[in-house]
């Protein structure tokens, strides 16, 4: 059964990449630059800037447009070099900041974010990180859910996809965690420093 799920998920991922190339060629071409690999240890999908790893089970259970959005989000984070800019910052908080910033960008590019998703407009990932509450001692990043717009000045709420609450694509390459959304503005292109 596991082999069948792997085969079917690989075909589904391929179909999603084809749809991205057809509907959103910028994002589709970015996805093509990274190898796509099944990884049953992931809850959704993730990137370390070198490859995209996905959960075959998540792929099988998720609507195609959300898979496409997740792919777009992780490649947008790569295009903005979020995975190289974290430095010594908290990985989970950095990931949340990246997700909030890239969600706004992909939403503006025409992707549909899940209803519970959140996006912060007009901020760099560093600015978003600074506006997120710091984890308390002994807490590695809170409850894993996206903070509300009220938690960050200059934020605006919008749908953001985070079914597992532990999205990645921008942290330490040796510590990639799951991600499930995508983003970039179509009218002005990516803005430097996001």
Structural overview:
Strand 2 (about 45) and strand 3 form a beta hairpin. Strands 1-3-2 form a 3-stranded mixed β-sheet. It has one domain. It has helices spanning about 1-25, 25-30, 55-60, 65-80, 90-110, 125-130; strands spanning about 35-40, 45, 50-55. With about 190 residues, it is mainly alpha-helical. The chain starts with a helix and ends in a 63-residue tail after the last helix. Helix 2 crosses helix 4 and helix 4 packs across helix 5 (about 90-110). It contains 6 helices and 3 strands; from the N terminus they run ααβββαααα. Helices cover about 40% and strands about 5% of the residues.
- Overall mean confidence score, pLDDT: 77
Helix and strand element order: HHEEEHHHH
Strands of the widest sheet, in order across it, are 1-3-2
Strand element count: 3
**What percent strand?**
under 5%
Q: What coarse outline follows from CA principal-axis ratios?
A: globular
Question: Which radius of gyration do the C-alpha atoms yield?
Answer: 15 Å
| Main pleated-sheet profile | 3 strands, mixed
Low-confidence stretches: 140-192
Helix proportion range: 25-40%
Overall SS class: mainly alpha
Intertermini distance: 42 Å
Brief account:
This protein has helices at 2-23, 25-32, 56-61, 64-79, 91-108, 125-131, and strands spanning 36-38, 45-47, 52-54. With 194 residues, it is mainly α. Strands 1-3-2 form a 3-stranded mixed beta sheet.
What brief labels describe this structure?
40% helix, disordered C terminus, 3 strands, mainly alpha, 3-stranded mixed beta sheet, 6 helices, 194 residues, single chain
């Amino acid at each position: 059964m596991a082999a069948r799920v792997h085969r079917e998920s690989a075909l589904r991922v391929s179909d999603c990449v084809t749809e991205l190339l057809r509907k959103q060629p910028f994002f589709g071409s970015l996805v093509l630059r990274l190898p796509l690999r099944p990884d049953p240890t992931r809850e959704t999908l993730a990137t370390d800037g070198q490859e995209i790893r996905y959960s075959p089970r998540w792929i099988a259970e998720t609507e195609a447009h959300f898979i496409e959005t997740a792919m777009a989000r992780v490649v947008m984070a790569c295009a903005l070099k979020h995975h190289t800019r974290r430095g010594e910052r908290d990985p989970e908080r950095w990931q949340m900041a990246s997700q909030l910033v890239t969600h706004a960008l992909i939403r503006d590019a025409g992707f549909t974010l899940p209803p519970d998703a959140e996006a912060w407009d007009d901020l760099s990932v560093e600015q978003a990180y600074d506006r997120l509450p710091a984890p308390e001692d002994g807490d590695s990043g809170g409850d894993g859910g996206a903070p509300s717009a009220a938690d960050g000045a200059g934020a605006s709420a919008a749908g953001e996809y985070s079914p597992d609450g532990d999205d990645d694509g921008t942290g330490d390459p040796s510590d990639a965690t799951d991600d499930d959304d995508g983003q970039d503005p179509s009218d002005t292109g990516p803005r430097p420093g996001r």
